């Protein structure tokens, strides 16, 4: 007998999309908002809910994870960089989330169950890890996507169960599939940003270059130093300085540029960012994943200043590799660096062309389509497979380098062809003894009698059956490329 599946759209035929984020910086919530806007363009999406899991948790938990991160960035950036690198190995963290996170996750789990989603999109690794546990326990049966929000892939985003993993660029997709994850579950649509379909470039070749300085993102003293440096530039320009909600910073900048006449325009928080991006020639600020993606989509090259160690430094490396950015490592040379870009004939135009090539303005819609039109069963990565991937990465090995019973194998749905499990070859024994089919494949079944399987195998069966009593799967080796 088949039990009802929450993966099918609701009774009215519409998807119920839950978007889970975490307010550690603005980028994760901005990506969530972009996906929410993409939902409005699809006729098959009914109810949409965006939930910041930190706001749903306790104030202490929210302060430690949210505010605490930025205290570390300001006071001990070397520790942030160490933490980023230390957690970069794939599946370094395995098993359930820590007890403190689990205790604070009860309100989030309750909200998920109340909403009854048919699709869940996670724009932060914390809810992605939480949702993976719910899939494996059979607590939810919704299509689930993990959406990264920086250009470089980071190991914390890998979870034990999901339907689709969306990374920002092709190199990240190659990296993840080299580890052994199946190509049909990983795509590189870019970082979701708010799509501006009716906004053309507002740049003019007959006017001096327009600088867009994101002062609020670079911090108080450093932001003032950036603006002060532009006062010494030799090239003609006009500048818009955006200070966000930092009123004290805005007042300092206004006082600093008061003698420059109408060359500078100083703004606080503004809803005009799309117009500013489209009308500027060069952006000066930090390479956050969302900020960089918005600039690239607008064809706006960047001068990178004061990046956060870890993800922002790696974002900057990618943008410079594409020819769409330059980086300034000290505030004392920012004016000179911008002058160098503006004074070299054709350089600014070349960087603008590189930015347009790098931009992915339709990423949010592509993420939504990839999930809703993709496989209905999750991919499960067993604990043994996770340990193997971690150990192999520490030895600089990839999946195709592994041999013998410790190698990785995949189970694929015989009907749809989608991969449903990644496991070690020596884990097949129990499954084959119980479920082997005459053709050499397996027919996984929902057994009512007690079984002697390890807990990991029971979780795999519960997750991939998705309400069915049986599922025919094929065992596939991981082939070498070419």
From TrEMBL:
<dbReference type="Pfam" id="PF00534">
    <property type="entry name" value="Glycos_transf_1"/>
</dbReference>
<dbReference type="InterPro" id="IPR001296">
    <property type="entry name" value="Glyco_trans_1"/>
</dbReference>
<dbReference type="InterPro" id="IPR009695">
    <property type="entry name" value="Diacylglyc_glucosyltr_N"/>
</dbReference>
<protein>
    <submittedName>
        <fullName>Glycosyltransferase</fullName>
    </submittedName>
</protein>
<dbReference type="GO" id="GO:0016758">
    <property type="term" value="F:hexosyltransferase activity"/>
</dbReference>
<dbReference type="InterPro" id="IPR050519">
    <property type="entry name" value="Glycosyltransf_28_UgtP"/>
</dbReference>
<keyword id="KW-0808">Transferase</keyword>
<feature type="domain" description="Diacylglycerol glucosyltransferase N-terminal">
    <location>
        <begin position="28"/>
        <end position="193"/>
    </location>
</feature>
<dbReference type="Pfam" id="PF06925">
    <property type="entry name" value="MGDG_synth"/>
</dbReference>
<comment type="similarity">
    <text>Belongs to the glycosyltransferase 28 family.</text>
</comment>
<dbReference type="GO" id="GO:0016020">
    <property type="term" value="C:membrane"/>
</dbReference>
<dbReference type="GO" id="GO:0009247">
    <property type="term" value="P:glycolipid biosynthetic process"/>
</dbReference>
<keyword id="KW-0328">Glycosyltransferase</keyword>
<feature type="domain" description="Glycosyl transferase family 1">
    <location>
        <begin position="238"/>
        <end position="357"/>
    </location>
</feature>
């Amino acid at each position: 007998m088949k039990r009802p599946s929450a993966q099918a759209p609701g009774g009215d035929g519409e998807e119920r999309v839950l978007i889970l984020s975490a307010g550690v910086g603005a980028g994760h919530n901005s990506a969530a908002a972009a996906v929410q806007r993409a939902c409005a363009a699809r006729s098959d999406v009914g109810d949409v809910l965006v939930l910041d899991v930190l706001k749903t948790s306790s104030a202490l938990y929210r302060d430690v994870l949210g505010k605490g991160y930025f205290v570390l960035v300001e006071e001990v950036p070397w520790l942030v960089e160490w933490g980023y690198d230390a957690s970069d190995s794939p599946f370094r963290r395995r098993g359930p989330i820590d007890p403190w996170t689990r205790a604070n996750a009860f309100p989030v789990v309750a909200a998920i169950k109340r909403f009854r989603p048919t699709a869940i999109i996670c724009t932060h690794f914390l809810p992605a890890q939480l949702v993976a546990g719910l899939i494996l326990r059979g607590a939810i049966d919704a299509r689930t996507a993990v959406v990264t929000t920086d250009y470089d892939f980071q190991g914390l985003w890998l979870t034990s169960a999901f339907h689709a993993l969306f990374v920002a660029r092709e190199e990240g997709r190659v990296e993840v599939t080299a580890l052994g994850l199946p190509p049909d579950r990983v795509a590189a649509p870019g970082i979701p940003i708010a799509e501006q379909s009716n906004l053309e470039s507002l740049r003019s070749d007959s006017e001096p270059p327009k600088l867009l300085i994101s002062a609020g993102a670079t911090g108080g003293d450093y932001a003032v130093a950036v603006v002060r440096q532009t006062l010494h530039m030799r090239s003609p320009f006009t500048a818009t300085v955006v200070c966000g909600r930092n009123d004290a910073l805005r007042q300092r900048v206004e006082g600093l540029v008061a003698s420059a006449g109408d060359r500078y325009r100083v703004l606080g928080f503004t809803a005009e960012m799309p117009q500013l991006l489209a009308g500027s020639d060069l952006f000066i600020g930090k390479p956050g994943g969302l900020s960089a993606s918005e600039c690239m989509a607008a064809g706006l090259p960047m001068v990178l200043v004061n990046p956060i160690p870890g993800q922002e430094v790696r974002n900057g490396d990618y943008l410079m590799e594409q020819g769409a950015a330059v980086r300034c490592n000290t505030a004392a040379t920012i004016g000179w660096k911008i002058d160098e870009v503006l004074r070299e004939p054709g350089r600014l135009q070349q960087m603008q062309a590189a930015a347009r090539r790098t931009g992915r303005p339709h990423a949010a819609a592509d993420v939504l389509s990839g999930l809703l039109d993709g496989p209905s069963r999750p991919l499960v990565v067993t604990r043994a497979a996770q340990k193997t991937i971690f150990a192999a990465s520490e030895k600089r090995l990839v999946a195709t380098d592994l041999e013998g019973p410790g190698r990785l194998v995949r189970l694929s749905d015989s009907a749809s062809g989608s991969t449903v499990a990644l496991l070690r070859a020596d884990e097949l024994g129990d499954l084959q003894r119980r479920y082997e089919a005459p053709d050499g494949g397996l027919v996984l079944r929902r057994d009512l009698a007690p079984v002697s399987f390890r807990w990991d195998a029971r979780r795999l069966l519960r997750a991939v059956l998705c309400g069915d009593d049986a599922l025919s799967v094929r065992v596939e080796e991981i082939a070498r490329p070419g």
